[in-house]
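Me: I hope this is not a bother. Any chance you could explain this protein sequence and its structure tokens? It all follows right here:
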Amino acid sequence: MINLGALIGALALAIGIVPWGEASTTIEETEDSARPSVRDASGVVFRPQDYRRIASASPVADELLLELCEPDRIVAFTGYSQREGVRSYRYHGKGTIELVTDIEQILTLDPDLVLAHNLTDPRHVERLREAGIHVFDFGSIDGLSSLFDDIETLATLVGHPARGTALALQLEEDLDVIASDIPPTERKHGIYATVVGNRIYGGTMGSSYHDVLTYAGIIDIAADEYDRWPNYSFEQLLKLNPPLIVTGTGTGEQLCAMSALNQLSACAQGREGIIEIDGKLLSSGGLGIVEAARAVRTKVYGQRPTAE
């Protein structure tokens, strides 16, 4: 997903972005079992079991499955991850789900569990469930605030809660160290923005873009006024006038050429305030947040000093 358009397109096609299941998933003890049950975003309760044919209809779930579940229990990943993932080769050799609405294609995979985010139409879910398939909706994707919950939930669902705990701890540790050497008073200010057609979209509080900026040591100045994925007008962007703009590779020139945006501080002096990073990495939304934050940190501050 090189820009927000690709992000919206991929997630809308693969998982749907209308928040039909806004509620987060929960893990709870059932009365008739000591094992925790898992409630998905639509309110359906699942009891962990030995699922043997798991299919993912979410790029974020793709990443988590590789870390939390045995490969021989996975029958399909999203077509997006197989083609556009940062390490797409990791998803090869499995079945493919292009759209969660492709019911017949999913049925041919004969899954016993389908994982998705933000399922938008309960009719599609019911068709799969009528065929005896468990469909788990993780709900909305909100950057790290939902990613940690998704790790715990999926690990419990596939019967490996300890793996989930370990993965979450490792993720937190990896993120915390990226810009730990940069004092708060020396952190630079900036935003994430990209161009889709003739529109400018951002990614701030409540999105993985905000998390990337924060852990890279950049203060996200858009977070005071906007959330999630704002559609900026030229006036709004000029008012923010960020010293740094993080965007996908090849987007900076296009952004600074729009209307009066060449007046932005980030566009001055040969666009020295434009920080371009591989768009696929920036928009991963999952575990790739770590690698994206490292890449941004290196571009802005240089490599983190190694311990002597």
Q: What stands out?
A: Residues 1-24, 27-33 have pLDDT under 50 and may be disordered. The longest strand covers residues 188-196. The domain at 182-301 is CATH 3.40.50.1980 (Rossmann fold). The longest helix spans residues 161-178.
